[in-house]
Amino acid sequence: MGATLAVHAEGLVKHYRSRAGVVEAVRGVDLMVEGGEVFGFLGPNGAGKSTTVRMLTTLLSITSGTARVAGVEVTHEPDAARRRIGVALQEAGLDPRQTGRELLVLQGRLFGLSTRDTSARAEELLELVELEEAADRQIKGYSGGMKRRLDLASALVHEPDVLFLDEPTTGLDPASRLTVWDELRRINRRGTTVFLTTQYLEEADQLCDRLAVIDGAAGSSGKGRPHSSRPSSASARERRATQRSTTCSSTRPDAAAAASPATSRRCRRDIRVGAGTARAP
Amino acid sequence: MTSAWALGQRALREASRTPEALLPTLFIPIFFLVVNTGQAGKIFPAASTSFLKGQGYGAFQLPTSLLLAASFGTAALFLVEDIEGGYFDKLRATPIPRTAIVLGRLIAELAKGLVIATALVLLALPFGISVASGPLGFVLLITLTALWSVVFVGFMQLIALKTRSAATNSGGLIFFPLLFLTPNFVPRDLLTRPMEVAATLNPVTYLMEALRSLILEDLVWSRILPGFAIVAALGAVMIVLNVRLIRQYD
């Protein structure tokens, strides 16, 4: 079964060592994402969404559990996994002193594309994210939305099977957010599986075929420190929803319905919920 | 090596677009050369000071300025920027050897080191300083300085990888005293006893003496080779530690 899934994680756990002792950042996340879908991974700040993504994308070691991405075991074959995945993390990871085109060309070279192929691919991607006119300007002059689109493009240089996006629209204005959503739909239509973390239910509603909720509150009675700050009213609503979804768990759409009626209309079904734990560092 | 070279080219582009970061690398060593020579030049006249081998005191001071220039590498600070801005993770998400990420910046640093050392020596020539060891000596002088800049920056990169923050800047100050616990004003045998001991234990001393030998006398391999040996040994330690740290980076 695992071989046919775009992402298959079982019992993912991440512990950090800190001066205060061992911090449990993620506890026992199970995920199954099918090829070709847009999968939403929701949860409040500090719930462990980013940590989970970083483990799935080989950027963080896995304390225990297993993860396969595009059929490849990420711990044992990290380079093979990296060839199959694209990553755009919360901070648009760009070099401000390069031009957009230089950044994409370098990315292509690092993925082993020939000089000719990488130039053609850069051109194609610049067109896809509508940055042709800004292509030869240094990135430090780009707006937030342009940077985010370029970041998306750089994650696509090697035509990955699975694209991981960690809160791709956080900090963007509404217009830029809509543009990024359009890009994501286009990318998905081309056959790329999209794994998306977000705090925004509206975003999940707009984009995701299925979603999972990682519940930061679930582990508050476990080891580690409790949340150190109160959520804003908007995220409080989300948290109540995720707590309910954790209670429901399993495979029914109750959680999504509780979170947003629109979400339940759009999502085919909810999936089993990973029991991640939130730990404020 | 292809990946390391691609990343090296990127680091060179970065350097060419931040000339303001390169200017102190030239200005401060020249400033020290002028000031130190001006302050002590009369104490050590060329005609009656045997350790100057017939040249002016500026020739004796040039190695200090070369080593100072080699210690102004900006690679570690740009690495911190990459880490803080997220580009470092972007690179780690590519299927290149982790070592290429470290080596790319070091390759660029070698190229920058060669250019800066050449510029400094050429700027010194009109002031009566010459390279007594000839064209081969000139090449060795520039190469040794550039290699030291790579080693120095490599150790700074270690701090950057460990702290992942701007604390790298102050971390570099740990290495700075090593430049001055050397026979930088007079030869080692003229130092006070405590300073002589400190200088003898300090590996940078042998580097400085090798550079000085290349400027003041013909090729004297017994003084040149220890300098290259120090760079090779510290360079090997630096590479091993960098590779280990980046492989464990989580």
So, CATH architecture of chain A?
Answer: 3-Layer(aba) Sandwich
Reported by name, the CATH topology of chain A is Rossmann fold
* Structural shape of chain A: globular
Q: Which runs of chain A of at least 5 residues are low in confidence (pLDDT < 50)?
A: 217-281
Q: Tell me the radius of gyration of chain A.
A: 19 Å
Calculate the mean pLDDT score of chain B and round it.
Answer: 91
State the major sheet of chain A: 5 strands, parallel
Give me the CATH superfamily of chain A: P-loop containing nucleotide triphosphate hydrolases
The number of strands of chain A is 9
- Percent helix of chain B, as a range, is over 70%
CATH class of chain A: Alpha Beta
Report what the structure shows.
The complex is a heterodimer of chains A (281) and B (250). Chain A has 281 residues and is of the alpha/beta class. Chain A has a single domain (5-84, 160-280), classed as 3-Layer(aba) Sandwich (Rossmann fold). Helix content of chain A is 37%, strand content 21%. Chain A has ten helices and nine strands. Chain A has helices at residues 49-56, 78-84, 100-110, 115-128, 144-155, 174-189, 201-207, 233-248, 254-259, 261-266, and strands at 5-18, 21-34, 38-42, 64-69, 72-73, 85-88, 162-166, 193-198, 210-213. In chain A, the strands form two sheets. A five-stranded parallel sheet of chain A has the order 6-7-8-3-9, sandwiched between helices. Chain A has a four-stranded antiparallel sheet with strand order 2-1-4-5, with helices on one face. In chain A, helix 3 crosses helix 4 (115-128) and helix 5 (144-155) runs parallel beside helix 6. The radius of gyration of chain A is 19 Å and the shape is globular. Residues 217-281 of chain A have low confidence and may be disordered. Chain B has 250 residues and is mostly helical. Chain B is 74% helix and 0% strand. Chain B contains twelve helices and no strands. Chain B has helices spanning 2-16, 19-40, 57-70, 75-85, 87-92, 98-124, 134-163, 167-171, 176-180, 193-201, 203-216, 221-248. Chain B is elongated, with a radius of gyration of 19 Å. The mean pLDDT of chain B is 91. Chains A and B meet through helix 2 and helix 3 of A and helix 1 and helix 5 of B.
